[in-house]
Amino acid sequence: MELTPLQRMTLPCGPLAYRQTGSGTPLILIHGWRGASSHWQDTLNSLADIRNVNAIDLPGHGETPPRRDQLTTEGLARLVMDFADQSGLERFDLVGHSYGAAVAVAIAAQWPARVRRVVLSSMGAARSDLEQQALTQTHAYMNMTLPWWRPWFALMRPWPGPWQPWLDWMSGEPTMSRAIAGPFLRQLPADDAVVSEGVREFLNTDPLSAMEVAIEAASPTFASVLAKIIAPVLLLSGDHDLVMPADGVAALAVRLKDCRTVMFADCGHMPMIEWPERFHRELRGFLTDGEVVA
Fold first, then answer.
1. What is the pTM of this model?
2. Residue 160 pLDDT > 70, yes or no?
């Protein structure tokens, strides 16, 4: 699998790695927990004829180095806006996968004039008041204990170097990489290179960044800003997603003003990888709806 070359820029918060291709209306892709811009390679290829497609690596993920300050959804939303400003992307479409969808929600809620359309993939909402209360309490508890753990995780940051050959072997060995990817994918790609690349990014994510993002995934702020989104929203999810179940997607849909849902049959947590043709057909149709073709 040939990847779009990485580019780098320096933002106010630090360096950022990203991939860019195509021309037209800007489109920003935001990956999920322990993901990377490489997860969007098929999207970069599929939409380059109609969009200026930009896929970023969040801090501590892919090739963007981790930050010293704690990662928060609001801070990552600001990072994406800094990227857009520095890249000259005045108004753009947004696609977020899993936790990246939470970042997309934060952007669309805080900067509504900048966001044209929003696609949230593999993202749901709390299905009851009790579930929301549990998430809120978990978030509060983890944030309370995080200051005790951050210094130790920060000290571990140089350690992956000696383990790199072992991590490379795990991601490159087909049986091992498919076992690691199994809980997230209902349909494993036939190309082992696609699985290997995803597992490699998963294993190489900075542990502290991964922990902070996991804590933010339970933030009550996500639910509180949904009503502020005015852009049209498309939800793309799999009916066998073990991370974000279908009823959670339905709970999210009813909280959005202008929303359409597409549920992929026999699909897990990564529809853009499991069913790329279907995923990109729906994505293209939504993004170009109402556009005048020259």
1. 0.94
2. no
